[in-house]
Hints:
This protein is an alpha/beta fold. It has one domain (2-255, 288-301): Spore Coat Polysaccharide Biosynthesis Protein SpsA, Chain A. It contains 10 helices and 14 strands. It has helices at residues 2-8, 17-24, 42-56, 74-80, 101-108, 131-141, 165-178, 197-200, 211-223, 243-259, and strands spanning 9-11, 29-35, 62-67, 84-87, 116-119, 124-126, 147-153, 193-196, 205-206, 228-235, 237-238, 269-277, 283-291, 294-295. Strands 1-10-7-8-5-2-3-4 form an 8-stranded mixed sheet, sandwiched between helices. The protein has a two-stranded antiparallel ribbon with strand order 6-11. The radius of gyration is 19 Å and the shape is globular. Bound molecules: uridine-5'-diphosphate-glucose and 3-phosphoglyceric acid. Residues 163-167, 189, 240-241, 246 line the site of 3-phosphoglyceric acid (3PG). Its cofactor is Mg(2+); Mn(2+).
Amino acid sequence: MADWSARHTHHWRDWGLEELLAAKGATTVSLVVPAHNEAATVGDVVTRCREVLLETAALVDEVVVIDSDSTDATYEVAADAGAVVHRAAEVRPELGVQRGKGEAMWKSQFVTTGDVTVFMDADLVDWDTHFVPGLLGPLLTDPAVQLVKGFYQRPGAEGPYEGGRVTELVARPLIALLFPPLAGLVQPLAGEWAVRRDHFAQLSVPSGYAVELAALIDTWRTCGVDAIAQVDLGRRAHSHQPLLDLGAMATQILTAAWARSTHSHHAEAIALHQYLPGPDGAPHSRAVEVPVVERPPAAPLL
Length: 302
Ligand SMILES: O=c1ccn([C@@H]2O[C@H](COP(=O)(O)OP(=O)(O)O[C@H]3O[C@H](CO)[C@@H](O)[C@H](O)[C@H]3O)[C@@H](O)[C@H]2O)c(=O)[nH]1
Ligand SMILES: O=C(O)[C@H](O)COP(=O)(O)O
């Protein structure tokens, strides 16, 4: 793990723009932003990335927002900001419709053209466009690298490289227990990562929030840990989900990890029991049906 960290941990400043553009050559890059009810922030993400990375620097060839079942104005805001926007449910509808972030990312493979895909969350509030060149650095300069993960400091956290609640209480312990070669990843759940298109198309993709951890595990298993690199992107802040919603995220991540351990599961949904005060003030159980479907590798369907 220490060896991997030493070999494959970078800083976004390690590459200059000219160097990256020269390394890019004819390689095409898609920036994909999965977005569920992000009308408040998606416009800023799209506008800044389009202006800086596509129009000024020509480092990105398309900015694509996958609207993931939004009920607000995400679609219109993203389109007005200059993104190509697709509704996840309308992409290859004959393949069926699932809910979730991973579904939006899986479906993106059918509407993007880049040799390399950079994923970025739509709910970023403290970030900058250098995230994208930072993530592209290892992919454009090292042909052995298949997947690049961002890491960052989170303003307000007690320790500079603390992850969020699911990262520290679920993902990191799972990695320690079941997937120790991945323990060098500082932010294993970061939504900012980049992957070669051909590689992503070979991966089975959980439709919910386990997409990040699954991609790391499956890349390590199929290509070795040296196919993964990580890049320090500086600071990043995002909006926070309520604790009970993170219970569903944690259930999805545990399910995908379990499927990749020596055990496996066959359910499409798992009932997660959570407790809220009832009218009498006593704890009342709420069963949340957490979807845990996986999409097969996209390659045979492309
Ligand atoms: O059904 C959904 C839910 C979320 N999103 C989008 O996915 C991104 C991240 O979602 P968010 O709910 O903000 O996730 P976080 O609570 O921030 O979760 C962190 O941890 C997750 C688990 O690894 C990662 O998927 C996230 O990218 C990472 O930011 C945002 O653009 C969302 O709009 C969708 O597209 N569809
Ligand atoms: O990354 C995580 O662990 C989850 O998204 C939760 O993050 P938060 O505790 O910062 O909301």
